[in-house]
Inverse folding.
């Protein structure tokens, strides 16, 4: 699950680079699903990196859902995400 989460996080980043933010957010939500319960910090660091990148785009479908999901799954780590 850890490796798949990492590979998918790179895919999500590529979608974001291409301007496909809806696809990027959907893939990142899948990364969150995979990383939940994995005893590795690295997928969560990638998730937080992606979530910070998506913050200016909360009007895009799926992005606000992703941001809230990350906040709920990582209350200690996600404190660096802006609150609004």
């Amino acid at each position: 699950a850890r490796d798949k989460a990492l590979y998918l996080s790179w895919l999500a980043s590529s979608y974001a680079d291409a301007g496909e933010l809806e696809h990027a957010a959907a893939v990142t939500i899948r990364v969150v699903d995979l990383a939940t319960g994995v005893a590795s910090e690295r997928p969560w660091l990638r998730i937080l990196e992606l979530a910070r990148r998506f913050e200016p785009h909360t009007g895009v479908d799926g992005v606000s859902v992703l941001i809230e999901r990350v906040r709920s799954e990582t209350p200690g780590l996600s404190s660096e995400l802006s609150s609004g």
